[in-house]
Amino acid sequence: MSNVLIVCETTPEGALRKASLPAVTFGKQTAEKAGGKLILLVLGSGVGAAAAEAQKLAPKTIVIEHDGLKNAIAETYAPIIVRVAKENDVSVIGATATAFGKDILPRAAALLEAGMVSDVIGVVGPKTFRRPMLAGNALCVVEGLTPVVVASVRQTEFPAAEAGAPGELSKGDAGALDGKGASFVRAETTKSARPDLAEARVVVSGGRGMKEGKNFGVLETLTDLLGGAMGASRAATDAGMVPSDLQVGQTGKVVAPELYIAVAISGAIQHLAGMKGSKTIVAINKDGEAPIFQVADYGLVGTWESTIPALIEEVKKLKAAQS
Amino acid sequence: MKILVTVKRVPDPEQKVKFKGTSVDVSAANWVINAFDEYAIEAALRLNENAATGEKLGETIALSIGPKDVSQQLRSALAMGADRAILVGGADEELDSFAVARIVKAVVEREKPDLLLMGKLATDGEASQVPQLCAALLDWPQATFAAQITANAEGLEVKREVDTGIEVKQVKLPAVVSVDLRIISPTAVVNGKTPATHAYQEGPRYASLKGIMAAKKKEIKEISLADLGVKAAPVTKLVSAEPPAGRKAGVKVKDVAELVSKLKNEAKVL
User: What residues form DSSP beta bridges with B236?
Assistant: First the structure.
């Protein structure tokens, strides 16, 4: 009982999703600690390409194909994951903590009565992992106490696994599928002109100091110039200046872009928790004592009115010179 | 419909996290309702009312687990509009996600709601496990990370937040739904009774004075773990917790030109 099973995610075209590669690395590290073998599981329909890719990443890959597995729903996927784990002497089941992993893994854990550790950022022992809590304000070590332990893996904390010599590939049986009254209807891919807040390279956020929604227009110009996504503090979304799905923070979205520009945001703890993983942080605030400056790499004391239009002009000049 | 909505108390996210040895110290915490649970209460109330006429369409029950003090947070849920509340006694730090799920399951079996509505995660533990665990233990369908809920003849159509946009999932009732941030946008909950043109105010509703007064008379039923017959043996153990390495404050720049120059030449992000 010491093998590690990593559940891989596939794209609608049947290829392996890159998001799964960090989980494979987690699986390798955990299998080494446990003295067991890394096994990858590919589920779906028409996922031959994903299986072939997975095969190059681990000593053993199991692929299970069935028309009814075309769309990943927890109700049908979880029992299969559980069965494969039982048949293969698995002590740890993992997947990347994407919407897919976060949805399906706990359901599998419940079926196994297994302890689960979410959002793993480091492997400490065969069933002991490091994870953040309280929006990154606490780093914890959590041990799974059950014969099988389930873990979801934070994508940004493990390097992507690299292809090597192909391992063994075996086909498994889907068995009888039962959706338990749930069915997939359709996927609606967002076609926003701007990148997704959680994935953007640059995020420009505005806070209460923007005063009203229409003033976010100037931030939009800056955002688009930088090819970024718009964000806001909870103070701004609660005041109805911008929709709540722009909220960056512990109660909104947690972001970690290369460049985060906080404009007219004082830096409440819950906001800082949502953005302090950013690589470079710029704070622009008229109050030089605002807490946001304590986490900012570059701080500029000034109002948004007096700085953002000038910043737009400077960035335009820079972009013109670069092109 | 009859909705059971779960309410967890968490340390106020606006408060600085304190540590005592190798664990988080919550002795001085200011407790608030987990934000996503507040969103779940709002979604439950929207499902169970005709916003145009004020007509009630079903019962909304708030459930919490924890020490007696949690009745404060339950009282807030009642003031928002929940009909009654249940408090299962227990020390919150001693219960892991699985134990919580077993307790919720036991209450569901007593109350037999059509829908178990929950926040997608708690801002303290951030495990995002309990709704899915409950669904599996109950053998019910699940729709996690709901951005939009529409009641229809077959149950609920749920628009789920996924990495690539939205996934639409249909679930029969009874079901478990966990809600994400966008569920509190003005037209995110469609129950077929509230006119389609009705737009709610963004965010969870504030308790009105009338609501607060009414909440004082509403029932909070206390149940012990022993009464529920739940054995909540832990399946995970929190070994240690410590503060992360802090981020150092950087420099103040004198003007926009200096800022752009630093971003280009020093941080190399422009």
Answer: A144
